[in-house]
Every structure is written in C-alpha cells, then in structure tokens.
Design brief:
The protein is α/β, with parallel strands linked by helices. The chain contains 12 helices and 13 strands.
C-alpha cells in the first residue's frame, strides 16, 4: 500500500522518475535537500527510502561506503524499506550472458568491486531492501547518460556513434518503465523477502537493432558507426572520469541480458513501453546542436595532456560518454 517516501537525489535520473511514479500511485513524497536536511530527521516516519545518490566514478571509493552506511542507519532507525537501483557492474567481465538474481558477483575491477561491496552491506544489514537491477538508461530528456550524451547525440543528423561492436546484445531500461516497476514493488513491500534482488529485463538490443529502432521511431534512416575511444585514452591520465569510463568499456563488447523471470513472477501485470515508442521519447529531446559536458571535458583534458607532454593537441572529441549508470 502507498505510504510516505523519502527521495534521495531527487533531481537524478532514477530518483526523479521513481518519485513521479510513486506520486501517481498516491504516495506522499519528501524530497531530500542536502543543503538543509539531515538524513536521520528526514527519514523519521517514512515507509520507503529511494536511494538515488550516485556520485561520479572518481568519487565512488571515497563516498559510496559512507553514503551506504547513512542509508542503512536511516532505514534501521525508521523501519523503512530501501529502494536501491542496481546495475550489471557486480557480475564482472567473465559473467554469463544471462544475468539473474542468482548470478555470482565476481567483478574484479575497482568500480565493480565497489558495487559488490555496497550491495553486500545492504544485504547483510538486516533491513528491508528492494534492489532493482537494470542496464543502461533511456531517459525522456537529455540527462547525461550513455544514450543521449554519446550514442544518439547526432541522431538528428541521421547517425549514432556506438561504443562497441554493432552485433553484441546490450541491456537497456526505459526509465518510466523502470520507475513503474519500482513503484509497484514498493507497494508490495510487505509481501517481499527481506532482501529482494530483482533484475529488470527492459530491452536487449545490439547496436544495429538500436539504430533500426531509432529509424522506425524517427521515420527516417539512422546509420550506426563505431565510436572512437582514443580521445578517452588520451584524456584519461588527466581526467579521472575518463579512466572510469575506460574501465567499464568491456560492457560494450560483452553480450549480456537481464533475466525477467523474477520480475514477471512478482509483477505479472507489468508491461514495458513498446520499443519504438520508448525510443521516440528518448530521442525526441535530442537535436543536432545538443552540447555535451563530457565531450567538452574530454577535449579539454586531451588538450591539457597533449600540451603538457609536447604532443600535438588532438581534434575535438566527437562522441562523449556520460556519467556512470545509477
């Protein structure tokens, strides 16, 4: 049943959409403001804590453990259920193609290990947790994710830049659908296990299928080409965010999909938005003149690194990835 939800990171992609879905279902919302609120007081009396806190990659090691500890303490004191977005980082480069709730968490890279440790802390805390695990996000507005900031940045000109081979399946989640599933699970929280790890299948698409879907959504041809990674490699020594993006590059060459059996069992009436309709919404806010802070950051870092080393400054970066998945 609906109750009161505390939204952490309310302006972020995941939390913003979940807040909207909860409000539509009749929940009362408290949007946390770090400038004026203290978490223990803000969480008092709430039924659900939506953990939308997600610092950029370079701050994960310093901040994730402390943020997770704060959320656990607030949930323990209030008795609230934690709604936590999960990603596929925990499985590692050697994981099977099908990712389910019982797939081992064997990531060996630093960012993957940090997510493994974060989820383990939540699991071992003894508090009620709904962990909804998804692939890359498709948003209804440009919000600095892989799709809008890099892949489809030039879709208005009839082309996309794809980070991996065009024939490798990749997991995607349309944020309004993910949010509706999150709200439905929260409403059923009393019937769930103490810790529920729920993979959200969303869409599994190759780069070629993504381009074809965009062409159908926009009503005109969309060509797909491979993204150049060399600007990120060049910028990485002086751009910490770039190092994290390179660390997670393997996901674009590794086939993977999230198994939907558990979600279908828990939410048999859930239905995703048809792919073409979702892509029409996701691409609708993009134009050929959209600016990109990651492209600009990479270009600046590349130029600084080249100038400092005596190398020739590279051409501007034409495709820029976004901040890490929530």
């Amino acid at each position: 049943m609906p109750g009161t939800a505390l939204i952490l990171g309310p302006s972020g992609r995941f939390a913003r959409h979940v807040a909207g879905a909860l409000a539509a279902d009749g929940w009362q919302l408290r949007r946390f403001d770090r400038r004026r609120d203290r978490l223990p007081e803000a969480a008092r009396g709430v039924d659900l804590i939506v953990n939308g806190w997600n610092p950029p990659y370079p701050r994960w090691a310093a901040e994730l453990p402390g943020l997770t500890a704060q959320v656990i303490a607030a949930a323990r004191a209030s008795g609230a259920t934690v709604l936590q977005p999960g990603n596929v980082y925990v499985f590692g480069a050697d994981a099977p193609d099908r990712l389910a709730e019982d797939t081992p968490h064997r990531a060996k890279n630093p960012l993957g290990r940090l997510r493994v440790e974060m989820e383990a802390r939540l699991r071992d805390a003894g508090i009620p947790v709904i962990l909804l695990r998804a692939g890359d996000f498709l948003d209804t507005e440009a919000s600095g994710n892989w799709f809008d900031a890099m892949i489809a940045r030039r879709v208005g000109r009839g082309r996309i830049a794809y980070p991996g081979p065009l024939d490798v399946p990749h997991a995607w989640a349309f944020l309004p659908d993910l949010a509706r599933a999150a709200a439905a699970l929260a409403e059923r929280r009393a019937q769930l296990a103490r810790f529920e790890d729920v993979p959200f299948p969303g869409y599994t698409l190759t780069g070629a299928e993504l381009a074809a879907g965009l062409a159908a959504a926009l009503g005109r041809p969309v060509a797909a080409r491979r993204m150049a990674w060399w600007p990120l490699r060049l910028a990485a020594p002086v751009w910490p965010m770039g190092r994290g993006l390179l660390e997670m590059r393997y996901l674009w060459g590794k086939p993977h999909r999230l198994d939907g059996a558990k979600l279908r069992r828990l939410l048999p009436d859930h239905a995703d938005t048809p792919l073409v309709a979702a892509l029409a919404q996701s691409a609708g806010s993009l134009t050929s003149t959209q600016t990109n802070r990651w492209r600009d950051a990479a270009a600046t870092a590349s130029a600084s690194g080249a100038a400092g080393s005596g190398q020739r400054t590279p051409a501007p970066v034409t495709s820029s990835p976004a901040e890490g998945r929530t």
